[in-house]
Amino acid sequence: MVERHPLLNATTLVLLVLGLVAALGPIYLAVCSASVTSHQILVHGLALIPGDRLWENLGAVLHRADIGRMLLNSCAVSLIVVAGKLALASTSAFASVYFHSRIRHVVFWCTFATLLLPLEVRVVPTYAVASDLLSPLRTIVEWLTGLRLNLSINLLDSYAGLSLPLMASATGTFLFRQFFLTIPDELAEAARMDGAGPWRFFVDILLPLSKANFAALGTIVFLATWKDYMWPLVATSRPEMQTIALGTATFLPTETGQPPEWNLVMAAALLALAPPLVVIGLTQRWFVRGVTGVGK
Amino acid sequence: MKASARFHGRWTPFALGFPQLALVALFFYWPTLKGLWWSFHLVCPFGHCSTFVGTGNYVRELKDPAFYASLGTTAIFSSLGVGLSVGIALCLAWMVELHQRSGKVFRYLLIWPYAVAGSVLGVILRVAANPTIGVMGYLNSLWPGFWQPHLIGAQAMAMIVGAFAWTQIPFNFIVLVAALRAIPGDYMAAAAMDGATPWRRFIDIQIPLIRPQLFFVGTMNLIDSITNSFALVDTLTQGGPGGATDILAYKIYRDGFIGLDLSGSSALSMILMLLVLAACAVQFITAERQARREV
Amino acid sequence: MTCRTTRRWLACAVVAWAATAAPPTHAVDFEFWYAHGGLYAQAIDDMCTGFNQSHPDDHVRCLPQGAYEQTMRKAVAAYRAGQQPALVEIPDIGTADMMRSGAIYPVETLMRDTGHPAPVDDYLESVRRVYAGPDGHLASQPFGASTLVLYANRQKLAAAGITSLPQTWEAFGQALERLKAHGENCPASADYTSWKMLEQVNAAQGEPIASAHNGHDGLAARYTFADGIHKRYMRDVARWHARGLLLPAIMTHANDQTLAFADGECAMVIDATGAYAIVAKAGLVDAQVGPLPVYAGTTHYGNTVGGSSLWVFKGKDPSAYSAVARFLAYLREPRQQLSFSARTGYLPLTHEAERQLSSNPSTEPDAIRVGLASMALPGNAYNVGARLGFMSLFRQIWQEEVQRALAGQGTMDDALGRAQVRGNQLLERFKATYEGSVEMTP
Predict the structure, then answer these.
(1) CATH for C21-146+306-375, among 4.10.640.10, 3.40.190.10, 3.40.50.2000, 3.30.70.1060?
(2) Nearest Cα residue in chain B from A268
(3) In the list A68, B143, C157, C289, which could disulfide-bond C366, CB 3.0-4.6 Å?
(4) Angstrom distance (rounded) from CA A267 to CA B119
(5) Is the omega angle on the peptide bond into residue B241 within 30 degrees of 0, that is, cis?
(6) Which fold has domain C148-304+381-434?
(7) Which chains are adjacent to chain B, needing at least 3 Cβ pairs under 8 Å?
(8) A5-49 tens-digit pLDDT
(9) How far is C51 from chain A, CA to nearest CA, in Å?
(10) Count of beta carbons in the 10 Å neighbourhood of residue A66
C-alpha cells in the first residue's frame, strides 16, 4: 500500500470482517446447532450460541450411522481418484506433448472432449455403464460373432465404481500439459542427445520437476472428490459404501412423521466438513498453488 | 515446441496415453453414445423394448414450456451466481490488497469455505434458512410471512444463488489475490504519486491487468453453476417451489432417474451439450479476438 | 473359411469364460429390497429375522434402498444388469411400469407353481383390485397399505366449541374458521401432495382422475381431474391456505404435518392411517379419528389404498422361488400382518387378519378401525388406485403447478388445467413407449 488513511483502513477492515462473518457464519451456526438438544431447536429455534452437548451429539451420530465407515469410504475414494488421476494425467499429458507421432493429438483431443458433457449431465447412461461394465464388450462380440455373452460386471457399490468415472476427465491432463509446455525444450534435447528414451526422460527429469504440480493437483482433486455428491448418490445403494458427503443428507428426515433431529443433522455436517478443513489448513501452500496453477 | 525436443516412436505415446483413453472411452464416450442412442428412441425403463422416433424426443423437449422454464431458471441462476461470486471475491481480494497489515489473516481464513461440500452446505441451510426454526424465523416472528422460500420462488432462488456463491468465492478469491499481488508495485506507486485514488487505481490499473484471471474464474464458475449446483438444489429445494429452482442439470437427473424417462432426459443432455459447445466456441472466439487486439 | 473358424474359436473361448465366470449360487439365499427407513425399517428387519429363525433352510437378506423412487430406480438398473433381487418392494405409482416391464413373475402364478397357492379371495377387495393384473390375478403381493382419515385434537375442538368431527368439507372449513377465531395458530396443516389431495379425495368421492378406468383398461387413459370435484376441492384448499387456515407443513415447528398434529401444534390433519402410530407414540394429544370428509350431499364411496406391494423378479432358480414363496406366505400370516400393522400403522390386508384385529376392540387403533370401515363402504369403478405411466413425474407436475397457484401466480383452475395437459403429455409418451415397441430379448 502506498498511503494510509484511517478512514480507508477502517472501511476495508469492516468489509473484510463482514466477508469473514459471511464465510464462517454457516460453519458457526452448524457448531451451535450441533451442540444443543433437538428439543431446544424445535422449541426455541436455531441456536445462536454454542451449547454444551457437542460431544454427546457427535457420539449419537457416530452411534446411529456408521460414520467411521463413511469417512473411510470418502478417504479411500478420494485417495484412489488422486492416485489414478495423477498417474493418468501426467502420462497422458506427456504423451500429448513430447512426441512426433500424430497419436499425441488423438490423446489430447479425445481427452479434451470430456469437458463438453460433464458427469452430472450424462449421469443416467454412465450409471447404466457402471452397473453393467461389459456391455460395450458384449455389444462388440455380438456384432462380430453373433453370440450373446452372459457376462456382466457391476461396479455399483464398489470403490472402483465410485472412483473410476470421476477419473475420466480432462482437468489434470490440462494442468500437466500447461506445465510441460513451460519446460525449456533444451532439457528434452539434451536428454535425447544423451541417448535417453522417453521413459527415462519422463521418470528422471520430468517427474522431479513436476513435484509441486503433483502436490497441487493432488490437493485439489482430493477436495473435489471428497465433496462430490451426485455420483456417490446414484452409484451406491448399500449403506456401507456411502461417502460422508452423502451420509450427511441421510440424517434429514425422509419418511413423513419421522421426527427431524436437526442437532444430529448438524453434527453429521460437522463431521463431514472437518477432514477437508484440516487438509486445507495443513496444505494451504499446495492448495493455493494448485488453484492459481489451474488459473494460469 | 521445437521438433528436436520431441521423441520418435508411434507406440510409446499410445501406450502412455492408453490408460487415460481407455477410461475416457468407457466412462465418457460409451455413456455419451448410449445417451445419444436413447435420445433417438423411446426406451422402456427395463430395457426390453425400444421404438425409433427420430428427432421426436428433441422436438418434444423443444416444444415443452417446462424446458424453456428450466433453461430460463438455469440462465438466471448462472448469471446471478457467477456475478455474485466473482463480484464479492474481487471486492474481498481488493480489500486484502489494500489492508495488507491484517491481510494475511484474512487470506488464511477466507478460504475455509472451500472445505464445505455443496451437499453439506445445503443440509446446514435447510436448518439455518428454515422459515420457522432458522435464522429467518426471527424475521418471520417480526413480519409474519416475510420469509417463505417454500412458496416464493424468488426467495428459493436467492437461497441457492447465495449458497452457490458462498461455495465458489474461496476459489475466486485465491486466484484474484494472486493476480493482484502479481501486479508490479511500481505501477501502483507511480499512479499514487500522480494523485490517483485507490478507487481510480483499482478501476484503471488493477482490473484491466487482472482481466484474464477474472475471465478465467467467471468461466470456471459458469461451468460449475451448470454442473456442481446439483447437490445444493437436491438438498435444499428439490427444484421447487413451483419449479422455481429446477435448473437443467437437476431436471435431467429428475426426469431420468426419478421419472424413469431415459429418452427425454437423454435428449436434454444432448441439448445441454450443444449449449456448452456453443458457450465454449463463443468464449474461444472472444479470447482469440481479445488476444489479437492486445498484441 | 478362416473367418468362420476364427468366429467359432472365439465363440468357444467366450462360452468357456462365461461358464467359469458364472458366480456360484446358494440355493435358498435370496435378497429382498425394501423402501423404508426409521421405524418402518426396524419393523421389516424384525420380520426378516423372524423368518430366518423359523425357516432354517431359507435365508432372506433384507436390504433398505432408500425412499420409494430410489428403490424403483435401483431395481430397474439392477434388472438391466442382471443383478436384480428376487423380491422388491415397489410403490403403487410404479405398478403400471412393473406390470409392463416383462421382468416380473406374477405372485399368484409363483405361489401356484411352488405349491403355496395364495388365498386370493381372502384379500380385502379394495386392496386386491389395486394390484390385480388385467387377468384379475394378483401381479404382486400387497404389503404396506394405508388410506386417508381425519385426525382431530379433541381438546382443541371442544375449546373452540366444535362438538362433532367434521363429516363434510363444508363442516371442515367451518371448523377451521372457528379454530382460527378461537386463537389457534394452526387450525390444520398439510403437505400438499397429490396422493392426499387428488388421488385419495377423488376416490372417496367416487370420481375418476383419469379415463379408461383410471388407467386400468390400458394405455389410452388420459387425465380428467381438472374439471370435476377436484377443482372444487382445490379452490377450497387455496382459500384455506390464503387465510392461514391450512398451514404448509414447513411453516410448523415440527416441519411435518403428522408431527405438527402429534405434538399439539395443529388442531387437525388429514393424514394416512399410518400416522396413528406416530401420534400414539408421542402421546401428547387426545386424538379423535374420523373418516375422510366428502362434500355435503355426495356419497362417500369406499376409500382406496395407497402404499406398496412386493414384486418377484424373473431370472432366479426354482429353489430360490420356493424360498420366496415361503417368505411371502409368512408375511401374509395374520400374526405378521398384525404385528407389522401395530408397529407401523399400516392396514391389515386380509379378512382373516381384519377379523382377528377387530375381535379385540381395545387393541385396535382408532385410525385402523376407521380406515377399514371407510374401505368397506360400497365402491364404484374408481376406488382402485391409479395405473398410469410416469406417475412420479406426474405427481411432481401436480405439486409444481399447485405450488405456483398457492404462491399467487395464476389461479388454481389454470394450475389444474396445466397439470392435466402436462400429465396427458406424459401419458401419450408412455403409450408411445410401450405400444408398437420392438420387443427385445432380455
Answers:
(1) 3.40.190.10
(2) B120
(3) C289
(4) 14
(5) yes
(6) D-Maltodextrin-Binding Protein; domain 2 (3.40.190)
(7) A, C
(8) 778 888 888 888 899 888 888 999 889 988 888 888 877 778 888
(9) 22
(10) 15
